[in-house]
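Exercise: predict the fold of this chain.
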Amino acid sequence: MTFSPPAPPAFADCTPRQKAARVVSDGLAPANMVVALLRFLGAPGEVFALVVAMLVGLVSSLLVTIGWQMSIHMSVAGGAAMILLLVFGPRVLPAALIAAAVAWSRLVLRAHTPAQLLAATALGGASALTFLLLS
């Protein structure tokens, strides 16, 4: 049994795929404005790169979720662990244990399959490479 919070009225008649598609489409305009505002205000390069990497991870995860339910929790945990590793090096490798705990919880709750968790972790880690490319 999985727990699902009640959907807002705007999503009451949507399938999970329709919800993800709507979130992507409704979220892209404000996200682009945030990126433009960061650039316009002269945000430090690392902050700009981090925000863009987070947005790449979120949008790509939601796009995959339209066709196949993937763990966005695990995508975020994998991406965060990868960015920490890229910034601070091997001394933050224990952050991977937090990502493993997230994966374990999603399995125990039967919210996702191992394949969905591995795919999400890989996507989150790959999205973190955006940070490396931009910083």
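Check your answer against the key: Residues 17-134 form one domain.
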